[in-house]
Fold this sequence. Notes:
By secondary structure, the chain is α/β, with parallel strands linked by helices. It has helices spanning about 15, 30-40, 75, 85-100, 110-120, 135-150, 170-175, 210-220, 250-260, 310-315, 330-345, 345-360, 365-370, 395-405, 430-450, and strands at about 55, 60-65, 70, 130-135, 155-160, 195, 225-230, 260-265, 290-295, 305-310, 370-380, 380-385, 410, 415, 420-425. The protein is globular and about 60 Å long. 4'-deoxy-4'-aminopyridoxal-5'-phosphate (PMP) binds near residues 138, 237, 238 and 294.
Amino acid sequence: MTTSSPEAARLSAPESGAPHIRTEIPGPRSRELHAQRTAAISDGFGVTLPVFIEKAHGAVLEDVDGNRFIDFASGIAVTSVGASHPKVVERVAAQAAKFTHTCFMVTEYESFVRVGEWLNAHVPGDWEKRTALFSTGAEAVENAVKIARRFTGRGRVLVFDEAYHGRSLLTMSMTAKEHPYKAGFGPFPTSDVVRVTNGNALRSGLDTAGALAEVERVLAEEGPETFAAMVIEPIQGEGGFNVPQQGFLSGLADLARRHGIVFVMDEIQAGLGRTGTLFASEHEGVAGDITLTAKALGGGLPISAVTGRADIMNAVHAGGIGGTYAGNPIACEAALAVFEVLEDPATLENVARIEQVVFERLKPLVDELPQVLDVRGRGAMLAIEFADPDLTPRPDLTTAISKACHQAGVLTLTTGTHGNVIRLLPPLIAEPELVAAGVDILVAKIKETLA
Ligand code: PMP
């Protein structure tokens, strides 16, 4: 372990024993359990890698057959402080022993307030803020729209191409991709949710000014005074780790404010240290009127937050928002532990090192291999996109490469509108050596597949 590595990152590649593959993947016990799953659980749940996890530590997952995987998924950007950070474990255990739930709408507890205070102090935006806690990302998005409607007295929501905001009925409507998220689940409130270009640098054919002009044209056509909220991810997650073109987010913020539209920054995947700054919108010097967090917030426990301008957040009547489990006390304690880890400067320094070891291995592939279209992202939110030279997406390659990585003990995820992107989301505290070992395997599998 290097001295600059955050405490509790702990395991370098040799120390962790990962990757270590001792059976076929999935192994016999995982296969047995998977058969039982099929008999008990809805087929509607997909699975990236059908192995059952027995234990996990930092950035290493161990399955029930004793195979150890380098974790480039973090449970989809959730276990940013590692799979079982000692501070999270300690606070969770202590709180569970005191009480597990009261419902904050029935009787109050201090940790809910402390989580709100921390978010108010750290979320971008130089104004007085208030926070509301919920349980899932989709719930945070839904509540942001409710609050914006109540504040503006308007109904409609502006969203972007390739966006992902969740699986509930409203957030599914705000999500762009048809399959698997929307297929067969309509009808959708199509006149209330309006989609505009995201100015995708590789595929939209628009520069920042062109993309902003297009958004302005649609707003003018639809009537800007009909929109309550404009909701955008600072880096699109499920859409393919699309980094916005320089100036796009700040241009959108100006547009929204000019028309009295609440500007909502969905930092659910990209926020809380993931991109090397506390919030991804900081890279663009932009602040949402409302900022949404979830995923990494609870270190693995379900909790989400809506943090925004006090006048907007307080526009809702008492009892208008909430939820039985909203800001559960065990999840709040976990969030307070996550904040301690994020406040340690070594954590974001480690994210910068992760970015460096990944980019120095993946970026040369863009010139070396014609099917590698792009390597992009920020911090520990990094991706590689596969396409033919004429930009035809190659999801077959991402599937084959990802599968080969899984067999070799590296848990990668695919993403993207066209399913042709491999994304890397290691825990922020992952030892850079371990990340390097995993990326070396990824590079080898890319070269073998493209050979
Ligand atoms: N917004 C973004 C940007 C997300 O990445 C996600 C989850 N992938 C959500 C919202 C929805 O979060 P949840 O799955 O917790 O409802």
